[in-house]
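Deliverable D5.2: sample structural annotation.
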Amino acid sequence: MPPQHTRRRARIAFSDSAAKQLENITSEAEIHALDRALVVVSVDPEVGEPIPGDTAGPQLREYTDEVERVRLLYWVTALRTVVVVAYLEV
């Protein structure tokens, strides 16, 4: 049986403001919650809801993980890189 090709995960990058937020995370629970949300978004970058706004720039999206109580604001590049703009606890 020939191998089935699966879609590769999107690469995750962080804006400067999101990177600063990451520096302030100290608890393992927060790290776990963020990791879980990042995995979901990397597998399916379109999972988040589009945020209405200006169409001149990239389309911001919002993903909320109700279980871990985390919200990510991000946009997806043409090469499927997910750029996280902000990480928020809900």
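Annotation notes: Residues 28-43 form the longest helix (16 residues). The first strand starts at residue 11 and ends at 14.
The annotation will be released with the project's public dataset once the embargo ends.
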